[in-house]
Fold:
Amino acid sequence: MPRGVFITLEGLDGSGKSTQIKRLADWFHKRGLDPVLTRQPGGTPTGDRIRTLLLDSASTALSPVTELALMFADRAQAIAEVIQPALDAGRIVLCDRFTDSTEAYQGGGRELGSALVLDLHRLLCGNLRPDLTLLLLPSLESSLERARRRNTRTAQHAGPDESRFEQEQDAFYRRVWLKYSEIAAREPGRVVQIEGNLSIDEAHEQIAEAVSELLVALGHHA
Structure:
């Protein structure tokens, strides 16, 4: 049985991750492959409950450390219930956010630092690392505008309120942006940056190229 492949998509809210992960899943399907799609926070019944707590704008009293602990509770459950079983079965796993998000948002945005996040990842997640991380980096201004517009539309249609992070000030997002850039510079062999205000098709082309190279390197047929 071939080894499983673990691919994550990262970026600020509004960077286009959700669109691109769907496009990437379709790309795999056209090649006769059936990837497992998941997201964080969420992706399991327990994780979806944690997601509601973390992202609801009414959760205003969460301390940064509580937020961090909840993120890792969600992640540990997702690894145990979804990600590791799929990888053990030789499946391709596409995950919308993973520990890089926690390092960027809680380590950078909340100023808890990278060391604490990485220590918790080793302790609670068995140091599971993606084979490839696709980091979408349109401009900070473009990402924020899209995220806030999306959440306003959701609220108007009585959908779930997931706007707690979008209410943060620009300084918070600058710290997140800088931390993402720091992660990419630290791990260039794993993190591929999809930079600039690209069209959906342009971003997908770069993503498909990076994924094809990974599959060839791992002995899979792209």
